From TrEMBL:
One term under GO cellular component: periplasmic space
Protein name: Formate dehydrogenase alpha subunit
Source organism phylogeny: Bacteria, Pseudomonadati, Thermodesulfobacteriota, Syntrophobacteria, Syntrophobacterales
Residue stretches making up the Molybdopterin oxidoreductase domain: 2-442
Classification via NCBIfam families: formate-DH-alph (TIGR01553)
Length: 804
């Protein structure tokens, strides 16, 4: 989230798209309703299915799964053609005035530089023209046809409202309602926010869904303001923390780039990954990458990390150049027998990953699996699951009992980047240990073995700092958190202040590139005060701004800033665009309000003032974004499996940059009449994720005892199915028998002159428990992922539904 939960109450219009917030994120929805109660805010819910969120919205708008970019592209066209954009903001704080190089082009669904054999773009033509000093060329009048604003207008001129309606199945009047209402926030005294979740990310165009909304928010001036932003609602209470700490394969902690094999030295790594800029008013915050990377290496290797050995950079595992180590590729390699061992912590991939039959078969190719969880689940017991003979499965599985969340202490990072410290409510039962304890003991054992037996390359393990235990040898969450925060390794004087060796680093601005500081994650630096006070444990309710920032409740990264890019909420003189919601204000030579997104004076100070989007080298929001794998402008493509044989927007049916898997089990229907219905997946309120925790609770299984599929009354009549009857849902990859829920929550769509039926299933069930509850909907989902992140396309694929 660029903003935070409480800030939702400051919005005038709330667009919930890609989320069923009322059921799945009820804490967020508390503030949605508060916005309506206190400000008269309007709530818009866009979703294929009518849900509890829809019931509480002022406007419910239905669209076919997988057509969000067409929907949003029509809104971009409406904003531009009706000049609803916030011109001052767009001119000063976005790249709308930048001139795009003449080599860039777009034709029939493809951007310039496409290699069809590699299914990949050469992005060298996706460039902004620069002058002799390397500064982007601009036209602040927006008259140049190659300026970003005009290029954006030309690209989305094709998204006329009738065409958008024919793609999405959304009536034209409903589109007009949303476009007019949300575009009304493109003025100084209005704010619009967007709430999304997995309904946007889990598509082959997932990242571009979010990019499209980012363009809208940039045009309307809704980024960096109270009541604005793009806000991802995280499903797990610590999903934000896990990504912050590099659970993803392409990053190191704090979103630093993972090193690749060709970058053999720290100097090469830093040269490649430290951005430079010629723009004099850009803060280019990532120029500090050397400070963050060296401090990270010092946290890992301590005294063994010195300048003479590149601070231990050689010890860090490297990705092969071009390697994609995301989960779909991992399972594919596992299926080929190229992975021997697998450690799985707190997950149930035999249920949660797409094409679950492939996943379960891939597990049979392992030599061993270590599974850490509070309960047995379909992954730990895959070897005795449907269609498998335990005697023929070679995989040795070790199930380690783990502590539940209330049985351990530590920090949790919520969607709004707020860290809150929690304490142990009860000790874990029996032999159960916290995951931290399990890993702490495991690495200690590995260190002992490497010291004794050496091995080919013992340094990464032997030299690893691993002092995260207490006097009794148990994992110490507080000590670990201080290491993550960062410590001074020598006495250091910064400005007029001297910090002593061993003190906590009170903010990432104090980290050093010469090895005098350690820090396990630079964005978390400042969670402890220099004297060691745990700021995550604060619970003060003071609210000086009256906007709900509550700066002394917990601690938010970075540096306790509650709203990112908040200097975009003021004009070039530092005065709030909206005085009724003064997030920041320049008063007597200093910022008042939220922790400013950088200490510099307003932009009108030509010598010291900085542009507000400090994480970007050019300092501005990107309406033209050349960094993604599948285009600088979001473009509508049909899902990999869809009901249309032709994309109404171009001859490119699917996203041309996605990876296609080719194993015999990777079957795709395309537009096959044997699988005529669009299917989407979601979670139900009564169960949690795969249900591996909740299906053991009798009161929850009583409420939702078995797998079901929601179908419309029209489809039920077409197929002769009655509510409560058993049906078979089938895709090219598998089938699930479940109960039919005949409902008005789904209704047929009129798409391109044909009637399209959509159905929905939860993924909360598995074969293990309770008996005969059915199995996961992911037996049906395709092995296909987003072109940038490889997030699986769970939200749009094709199935058939027949009565059993």
């Amino acid at each position: 989230m660029t903003n935070h939960y409480i800030d939702i109450k400051n919005a005038d219009v709330i667009l919930i798209m890609g989320s069923n917030a009322a059921e799945m994120h009820p804490i967020s929805f508390k503030w949605v309703l508060r916005a309506r109660e206190e400000r008269g805010a309007k709530i818009i819910h866009v979703d294929p299915r009518f849900t509890r969120t829809s019931a509480l919205a002022d406007h419910y708008i239905a669209l076919r799964s997988g057509t969000d970019i067409a929907f949003l592209g029509g809104m971009i066209k409406y904003i531009l053609e009706n000049k609803k954009y916030f011109e001052e903001y767009v001119r000063d704080y976005t790249n709308a005035s930048f001139i795009v190089d003449e080599k860039f082009s777009f034709n029939d669904g493809l951007f310039s530089g496409y290699d069809p054999a590699a299914r990949k773009y050469d992005k060298s033509t996706w460039a902004i023209k620069v002058d002799e000093k390397g500064i982007p060329q601009k036209d602040p009048t927006f008259e140049n046809p190659r300026c970003v604003l005009q290029m954006l207008k030309a690209h989305y001129s094709r998204y006329d409202i009738d065409k958008v309606s024919s793609i999405t199945g959304t009536p034209v009047e409903d589109l007009k309602t949303v476009y007019e209402l949300y575009a009304s926030t493109g003025v100084k005294d209005k704010a619009g926010t967007e709430l999304y979740a997995l309904g946007w990310t889990q598509h082959t165009v997932g990242v571009q869904n979010i990019r499209a909304m980012s363009i809208i928010q940039g045009l309307l001036g809704n980024m960096g303001i109270a009541g604005g932003g793009i806000n991802a609602l995280r499903g797990e209470p610590n999903v934000q923390g896990s990504t912050d700490h590099a659970i993803l394969s392409h990053i190191l902690p704090g979103y630093l780039k993972a090193p690749v094999a060709s970058l053999t030295t720290l100097e090469e790594y830093l040269k490649k990954n430290t951005p430079k800029t010629s723009e004099p008013q850009s803060a280019n915050w990532y120029q500090n990458t050397p400070k963050y990377m060296v401090s990270l290496l010092k946290a890992w290797y301590g005294d063994k990390a010195v300048k003479e050995n590149d601070f231990g950079y050689a010890n860090v595992p490297k990705l092969d150049d071009g390697q994609d180590a995301t989960v779909l590729n991992m399972i594919d390699k596992m299926y080929e027998g190229k992975i021997k061992g697998f450690t799985c912590i707190g997950q149930d991939p035999a249920v949660s990953l797409p094409n679950a039959n492939k996943v379960r078969q891939a597990f049979t190719k392992l030599d061993w699996m270590v599974h850490v969880n509070i309960f047995d689940n379909e992954t730990a017991s895959f070897w005795k699951g449907p269609g498998l003979d335990p005697k023929k499965v070679k995989t040795e599985v070790f199930l380690l009992p783990a502590a539940a969340s209330m049985e351990k202490e530590g920090s949790m990072s919520n969607s709004g980047r707020m860290l809150q410290w929690k304490y142990t409510a009860e000790k874990p039962p029996g032999d159960a240990l916290s995951v931290g304890d399990i890993l702490y003991r495991l690495v200690n054992k590995l260190k002992d073995l490497y010291k004794k037996e050496k091995g080919a390359f013992p340094d990464p393990i032997v030299n690893l700092v691993w002092n995260y235990g207490d006097a009794k040898g148990h994992y110490d969450a507080l000590a670990t958190s201080k290491a993550v925060n960062g410590l001074f390794l020598e006495d250091v004087t910064i400005g007029d202040k001297t910090f002593k060796k061993g003190q906590c680093v009170p903010g990432f601005g104090n980290l050093q590139a010469d090895g005098k500081t350690s820090c396990g994650n630079w964005i978390y630096s400042g969670a402890f005060a220099a004297d060691g006070t745990n700021l995550m444990a604060r619970r003060k309710k003071d609210d000086p701004t009256g906007l709900g920032l509550y700066p002394e409740w917990g601690w938010a990264w970075p540096v306790n800033r509650r709203i990112l890019y908040n200097r975009a909420s003021v004009d070039k003189n530092g005065q709030p665009f909206d005085p009724s919601r003064p997030l920041l204000k320049w008063v007597d030579g200093k910022w008042v309000g939220d922790v400013p997104d950088g200490p510099w004076p307003p932009l009108s100070d030509k010598e010291k003032g900085k542009l507000p989007f400090i994480m970007k080298p050019d300092g501005v929001a990107s309406l033209f974004g050349p960094g993604l794998a599948d285009g600088p402008f979001p473009e509508h493509y049909e899902p990999l499996e869809g009901p249309l044989a032709k994309n109404p927007m171009s001859s490119q049916l699917n996203n041309p940059a996605i990876k296609i898997f080719t194993k015999e089990c990777d079957l795709y229907s395309g537009c096959d009449p044997k699988f005529p219905f669009v299917c989407t997946t979601y979670s139900c309120t009564e169960h949690w994720c795969t249900g591996a925790e909740t299906r053991w609770q009798s009161w929850l299984t009583e409420a939702q005892p078995e797998a079901y599929v929601e179908i419309s009354r029209e489809l039920a009549e077409l197929r002769g199915i009655k509510n409560g009857e058993r049906v078979r849902v089938e895709s090219p990859r598998g089938k699930v028998e479940c109960v039919a829920m005949v409902t008005t929550r789904f209704r047929p769509f009129q798409v391109g002159g044909q009637t399209i039926h959509q159905v929905g299933m939860t993924f909360n069930y598995g074969w293990l428990f309770p008996k005969d509850c059915g199995d996961t909907a992911n037996l049906l989902t395709p092995t296909a992922g987003d072109a940038n992140t490889m997030t699986p396309e769970y939200k749009a694929f094709m199935v058939n539904v027949t009565k059993v």
